[in-house]
Amino acid sequence: MAELIYPWAKAFHIIAVISWMAGMLYMPRLFVYHCTATVGSKQSETFKIMERRLYKAIMTPAMLAAWAAGLYIAWDRGFLMDGWFHGKLAAVVLMTVIHLMMGRYVRDFAADRNTRSHKFYRIINEVPTLLMIAAVILVVIKP
């Protein structure tokens, strides 16, 4: 039975990771543009809606699905004790921390309390990319 489930779990995991990463890469760009919008303007209010929907309807469900499928695969394939898996898990934990930070930034913008510059969000935009590269290399190369 596990051999029938594994390819579906793997496909589900890949789809979830792609969806999560799309949001993780797009959200900071929204923040960059939101920084330049005047508080209370139509543009600012539109960014608030976009950020909330991206975070709640796409990023968070995708993150939870990626975690669930990934942990199932790790357990099913016996990866839990492998060194490369520990590295990948560390990258995913850090990605989750960044995800939660973005949730805080979404709430800050929604309440018109953003105190960070567009430069800050440009830098934050690079962190998920670096973590993704690390995770992919660890999974594919398994050093």
UniProtKB/TrEMBL annotation:
GO terms for molecular function: metal ion binding; protoporphyrinogen oxidase activity. Its cofactor is heme b. It is an enzyme of class 1 (oxidoreductase). The keyword rRNA-binding does not apply. GO terms for cellular component: plasma membrane. Heme binds at residues 13, 88. Belongs to the HemJ family. Homodimer. This is Protoporphyrinogen IX oxidase. It comes from Rhodopseudomonas palustris (strain BisB18). The lineage of its organism: Bacteria, Pseudomonadati, Pseudomonadota, Alphaproteobacteria, Hyphomicrobiales.
